[in-house]
Amino acid sequence: MHEKSPLLTVTRREKVGTRYNNRLRESGSVPAVVYGRGKDPVAITLNHRDFTRLVIKGEKIFRLDVSADKDLDSQQMVLLRDLQFDYLGTNIVHADFTRVSLQDRVRTLVSVHLIGEATGLKQAGAILMHPVSELEIECVVTELPDFVEVNIAELDVGHAIHASDVKLTPNMKLLTDPHAMVAQIVIQQEIVVAEATAAPTDAAAGPEVITAKKPEEGTAAAAGAKPGAAAGKDAKAAAPAKDAKAAAPKK
Questions:
Q1: 111-115 contacts, C-beta under 8 A, 24 or more apart
Q2: Residue 115 binned pLDDT confidence (cut-offs 50, 70, 90)
Q3: Is the pTM of this model over 0.85?
Q4: What is the DSSP letter of 249?
Q5: Are 46 and 6 in contact (CB under 8 A)?
Q6: Stretch 14-22: mean pLDDT
Q7: What is the pLDDT at residue 237?
Q8: What is the separation of C-alpha 148 from the centre of its chain, rounded to a whole number of angstroms?
Q9: How far is CA 15 from its chain centroid?
Q10: pLDDT at 247
């Protein structure tokens, strides 16, 4: 067994279902399931406080102590596969584990820790972008890291560190897209200018639409009037012009 892995004391769940699991959560437990290695899935419960504390520390490999159950192995090594949280995203409400051995190669996500002070941050308006904070890797269980470190001390404005630039041990395989951006230095002023440039374009487009609608509104208003009234109005407007022409003195 991997002695460095934390030990969790668990018990088998005799019942399953939403109502039963909710009662477990109210009592300070977390329902979970253990899968893998050609054995039937086993529903278990574990202490919420102890488990949450280890998850926050970044632990992924655990030894499950199930010595209280004679039908199960006294200790099993498992890999944390999935976590489910409540609707607020703060409390763990369910966990999935996979049985593993020390020789197994596993796939998992590891956190990326940025170290050092980037050279580019000394420039006015420079900010650090960190789009990818986790990398998916494949490695032997015994070599599974809690995190990987990326030194950004030499990172300058306009440059970036991609997933393929992260140094891994020879036995680790990167599964994340090698072009995924881990860190980049950009000038904040450039972002503001780009947004300001786009704003007038939208504003200029507004009045054109309003101006274009005015003839349509006038046409719509005229269309709403009675045909007779419109014809009478035109006739009255034309009559004075005719009279004025007739009354004009001959030269």
A1: 111/58, 111/146, 111/147, 111/148, 112/147, 112/148, 112/150, 112/166, 112/182, 113/147, 113/148, 113/149, 113/150, 114/149, 114/150, 114/152, 114/183, 115/149, 115/150, 115/151, 115/152, 115/153
A2: very high
A3: no
A4: P
A5: no
A6: 80
A7: 43
A8: 21
A9: 34
A10: 44
Q: Compute the distance between CA of residue 144 and CA of residue 135 in angstroms, rounded to an integer.
A: 12
Q: Point out the least confidently predicted range of 64-73, 94-103, 134-143.
A: 64-73
Tokens of 93: 């409400």
Q: Is 128 helix (H, G, I), strand (E, B) or coil?
A: strand
Whether the pLDDT of residue 134 is over 80: the answer is yes
* Residue whose pair of structure tokens reads 């939208």 in the numeric block: 202
Considering only CA atoms, which of 108, 101, 105, 98 is closest in space to residue 148? 108
All structural domains of the chain, each given as residue ranges with its CATH number in brackets, are 7-102 (2.40.240.10), 106-190 (2.170.120.20)
Extract long-range pairs of 26-34: CB within 8 Å, 24+ residues apart: 30/92, 30/93, 30/94, 30/95, 31/93, 31/94, 31/95, 32/94, 32/95, 32/96, 32/97, 33/95, 33/96, 33/97, 34/64, 34/76, 34/78, 34/97, 34/98, 34/99
Residues forming beta bridges with residue 138, ordered by sequence position: 107, 173
Residue type, 55: V
Of the candidates 74, 66, 80, 6, the residue with the CA atom closest to the CA atom of residue 36: 80
